[in-house]
Design a protein that fits this description.
This protein is of the alpha/beta class and 339 residues long. The protein is built from 12 helices and 10 strands. Bound molecules: adenosine-5'-diphosphate and magnesium ion.
Length: 339
């Protein structure tokens, strides 16, 4: 584990056709159990799940930037062993001159919840987007099960994306659609279920997040915490193997945040969902993580369980866990006051 502290300079990107803003539609996996508990109210923001629709129309979109020129996606033997459901091998990603990922090697084990920690702008969301082919690496490989996906065509990615539920950081519910229609959306896009069956699935998913019976409401009638949970219901309505949570508790008070934590745990324990959670919320990380990974300067600088993070003698990790400013930042501030 190394680190590089380069703070990237922003750069517009040509190869990121999908941005948070652009990704509100998505698809979501379905649910079977019911685990709902919780009642809430609160504000936060909405979320969504995987994009799929681009896949449907792959020809428009399988153009240039989504696919590496000349590459074909294939199913090859996975590089190595263990139960890695998702694997990053030497992944590099830059936007113009901004180097975001500078050699990420990571395996995500099936059935576990991995929390990705790191300062803002360090590439956590970028990392998640590589897992579903929303971004492509400049170098390196990304694998899902036995398939290499970084060079896969969009049309082939559709199947991969169905295995993922994505709770986006910024994405929203469709305000003009009822809650039930929002949750049904991925089912309409990706299944041939009848309308009554879709309704049943949606209701099950809503029940699972503790919101049974609210299907006929409009998103505008919900609190922020409820919207987040509806987005989570949408993210799991297709019964994904993996759920990616991008800052799922941001904007929620501690109680509502804990409801989300409990849902992450319930999805993992009851449905065996493999979770990847990006968060700044240390309390949430401690609660849900089987494993924590810290990104900094484009690389993984720490990887271990919560205890290892607590006891880390890496200054950067220690400061992050304690919510303390970085030494460099402190120096800059002191410099600014002429000390
Ligand atoms: N599509 C894009 N085009 C250009 N720059 C991007 C794009 N996506 C992310 N970035 C930049 O990459 C860096 C890492 O972003 P991100 O992964 O969103 O950070 P975070 O760790 O806060 O989630 C940021 O500087 C961000 O502005
Ligand atoms: Mg982010």
């Amino acid at each position: 584990m190394t680190h590089v502290n380069r703070q990237p300079s922003l750069e517009p990107d040509s190869d990121a056709p999908w941005d948070d803003a652009a990704m509100n539609e998505v698809d979501l996996p379905v649910v079977r159990g019911d685990e709902g508990q919780t009642n809430d109210t609160e504000a936060g923001e909405p979320a969504a799940t995987l994009p799929h629709d681009q896949d449907a129309t792959d020809e428009q979109e399988s153009s240039s930037e989504q696919t590496h020129p000349g590459s074909q996606s294939t199913t090859r033997p996975r590089p190595t062993s263990i139960d890695a459901l998702i694997r990053f091998v030497g992944v590099h990603k830059a936007f113009g001159r901004l180097k975001v990922l500078t050699g990420v090697d990571l395996d995500f084990e099936a059935g576990k919840t991995t929390v990705i920690l790191g300062p803002s702008g360090t590439g956590k969301s970028v990392l998640l987007k590589h897992m579903v082919g929303l971004l492509r690496p400049d170098a390196g490989e990304v694998w899902f099960e036995d398939k290499r996906i970084d060079d896969m065509r969009d049309r082939d990615l559709v199947e991969v994306r169905k295995q993922f539920g994505f709770l986006f950081q910024m994405a929203a519910l469709f305000d003009s659609m009822t809650v039930a229609d929002n949750v049904c959306f991925p089912l309409v896009e990706h299944t041939k279920l009848s309308k009554p069956d879709r309704r049943d699935k949606a209701e099950q998913a809503l029940k699972m997040v503790g919101l049974a019976g609210i299907g006929e409401k409009m998103p505008g009638e919900l609190s922020g915490g409820q919207k987040k949970r509806v987005a989570l219901a949408r993210a799991v309505v297709l019964e994904p193997k993996v759920v990616l949570y991008d800052e799922p508790t941001t904007g929620l008070d501690p109680i509502r945040s804990d409801v989300i934590n409990e849902l992450i745990l319930a999805l993992n324990h009851n449905l065996g969902v493999t979770g990847v959670v990006v968060t700044h919320d240390i309390a949430s990380a401690r609660k849900v993580a089987d494993r924590m990974v810290m990104l900094h300067g484009g690389k993984v600088i720490a990887d271990g369980d919560a205890d290892a993070f607590e006891q880390s003698d890496n200054e950067r990790v220690r400061r992050f866990m304690n919510g303390e400013a970085d030494v460099e930042d402190l120096d800059l501030i002191r410099g600014g006051f002429g000390h």
